[in-house]
Amino acid sequence: MDSTAPDQAVRDLTDAKDRWAELPIAGRIGYLDRIRSLLAERSDRWVALAAEAKGLREDSPLLGEEWLAGPYGVLTWLAAITETLQAIDAGTDPLRGSVVSERADGQTVVRVAPHDFNEWLLLNGFSSEVWMQPGVTAANVRDHLGSAYRGPRAAGKVALVLGAGNVSSIAPLDVLYKLYADNEVVICKLNPVNDYLGPLFEEIFAPLIADGFLRFVNGGADVGEYLCTHPGVDSIHVTGSERTHDAIVYGVGPEAASRRERDERINPKPVTSELGGVGPTIIVPGPWSKADIAFQAEHIATQKLQNSGFNCIAAQVLVLPEGWEHTEALTAAVRDALARAEQRPAYYPGADDRRQGVTDAYPQAETLAGSRTLVTGIDATDPKAYAFTTEFFAPALATTSLPAGSAADFLDQAVTFANEQLHGTLGANLLIHPKTIRELGPKLDDAVAALRYGTVGINAWTAVGYSSPRATWGAFPGHTPDDVQSGIGVVHNALLFDRPQKTVVRGPFTPFPRSISAGKSSMSPRPPWFVTNKTSLVTSRRLARFAADGKLRHLPGILLSAMRG
Hints:
The chain is α/β, with parallel strands linked by helices. The chain contains 21 helices and 19 strands. Strand 11 (366-368) and strand 12 (372-378) form a beta hairpin.
């Protein structure tokens, strides 16, 4: 490996790190404004590059995913962090527009979305909350945000960001979080899977690069390994696999496992991470109609097949109520939805091998539409089940079941199963009928509190939390390097909370217009991120245009396209 480029990049950042640490907020906001404009001008090219790399046709509705998980996600975060920094700089309330409350047990909850009328209109019926760790109260929550901007600035540092190869907004958002939340300049090594975006990112982030605060480098594992141990790098953030994290912290080879058991680290640098895991979708029994079953089957297929299954937050284990009158019908509908969804290439390296691993573990697995795998009826009491311990990271879904009984009893069992049997704590989904929500009352809130996951979705895929800029994204707190599972720390978090515990997202169980006949006020049609949404490309592109400039003229077109989806 030629170390000239990485070494020079670290030298440049070392020279600039104290200037960034001392830069006033107004100066930092200036960079955000310029980046937002540069991104807006290049968003079409961003999506076109992703479409070519992932083998999607230029008019495919699936390209909506690339808009939402690409330019749109970064643009909304830029707007949100700008508003937070402006409030801190002016000495006003960064939580203006948020609702602060306390649960019955005293846990503080901040509703961070909808943040304003536009969010309420465009994501009608959806909401995001950040639940805080013990010790954070409604009275002191504002003392637990934006610590990097309160009191004397810490000395400058250089951070290494190891970018993910699957979702194109991950690396830019991780870079921005290190700069603006952790106050560190950044060298970002892109993943070889999507390093085709490198030249584009260098154009978008040109103002930060020109002043020495950011560098992008490409290369394989050897470059990443070199930078992880570079004396000029002070901290590391990685989005990837648990295996990659352990290689950074404990090394590789025959001794690595024993070093991890002893927590004997060969790399003393602080490492934060988002590492995926085994994500459950829990089906709470209730009075579902045929239309409910059909819609939620599309929802479940989306949770699995979005981005061809190459998502750290993809649903992997469908937890069904045994003996529920609709279990068989829902399973059949999910099978059909998985088979009917638009075909796409399995672009991520190793996909065929990972699918083969699933079929090796479960010879009875069904192959759907030639490229998708469904495994039904896995024993929920098997603590070593492959589906419970290994992230598939492929278009493969497993089901298991627990005794139904009452909805409350089933939910208690499902929470225990998810917490104790499944590996990882990144996100868990709950699908539950509104009537059942009313019947459970505070028991549902207690179940959400008991779930040890960084994001919990109630009738909304946890990926909504990823896309909500003021929400936090990461594993449930408490993991250690020797048992890292889904990772350590959070990102996104545009309100800069210091001690978040989890994000909770909620959505409508029934889409518009059927929601009206069901007695609900939600006006949200089939969401644009559904793999079955036929206008996803148009809607998502228009959402990104609106996120770029905030002009109200975009709203009628967005709403019209969304209603046709």
